[in-house]
TrEMBL record:
Protein name: F-type H+-transporting ATPase subunit epsilon
Entry-linked Pfam families: ATP-synt_DE_N
Signal peptide: none
Localization: Cell membrane
Length: 85
């Protein structure tokens, strides 16, 4: 089983693909998601999103705020990414 993941900023897509694991910083603490997890909707805190791609590669995205939604193995993250120079 895999997670279908969409990570978007207000003005662009940051990453779309399939993953085996996603973690994100919520205002209530870190959230870790595997296939089959209970549905959630949470506000993101500043921190780092981690995506473990199906091939085993780790992807990291630093964010300032946003929200995460998870249902039926679909992860949707709308986030304000940290600006890069």
């Amino acid at each position: 089983m895999a997670l279908s993941v969409d990570i978007v900023a207000p003005d662009r897509t940051l990453w779309v693909g399939e993953a085996s694991f996603v973690s994100a910083p919520s205002v209530e603490g870190s959230i870790g998601l595997l296939p089959g997890h209970e549905p959630i909707l949470s506000v993101l805190a500043a921190g780092r999103i981690k995506v473990v791609e199906l091939g085993g590669e780790d992807l990291f995205i630093d964010v300032l705020s946003g929200f995460i939604s998870f249902d039926h193995d679909v992860v949707t993250i709308v986030a304000e990414p940290v600006a890069t120079a």
